[in-house]
Write a structure and sequence with these properties.
Layout: H1 7-18, H2 22-41, E1 46-48, E2 52-59, E3 62-65, E4 72-75, E5 78-85, H3 87-91
Antiparallel strand pairs: 1-2, 2-5, 3-4
């Protein structure tokens, strides 16, 4: 069964591997996530070498269907974050 890595587990792993306190590790992770979010909100792509790229994509209005009732429903325009893995990351899973 696959297990999901949580934010707290990530903080603990970084704390153990780098040898810093949990508070400092937590602060580092929060700063990284905040920076990525801020860059995406301002319209910039975030590329992490040998890992991948985060991009904001705009999705236009489209029609969808409620699977229970079969009624057509408009899906509002919105922005979504997409992640594109690098070739290095992709090659690890072949």
């Amino acid at each position: 069964m696959k297990k999901t890595l949580t934010r707290n587990e990530l903080i603990e792993v970084i704390s153990d591997k780098v040898g810093i306190s949990l508070n400092h590790s937590s602060e580092m992770i929060e700063n990284i996530f905040d920076f990525i979010l801020t860059e995406l909100e301002s319209g910039h792509d975030v590329k992490i070498s040998s890992f991948g790229t985060f991009k904001v994509k705009h999705k236009n209005l489209r029609m969808g269907r409620n699977p229970k009732t079969g009624v057509d429903v408009p899906i509002k325009p919105r922005n979504v974050v997409s992640f594109y893995s690098s070739n290095v990351l992709r090659s690890k899973f072949k």
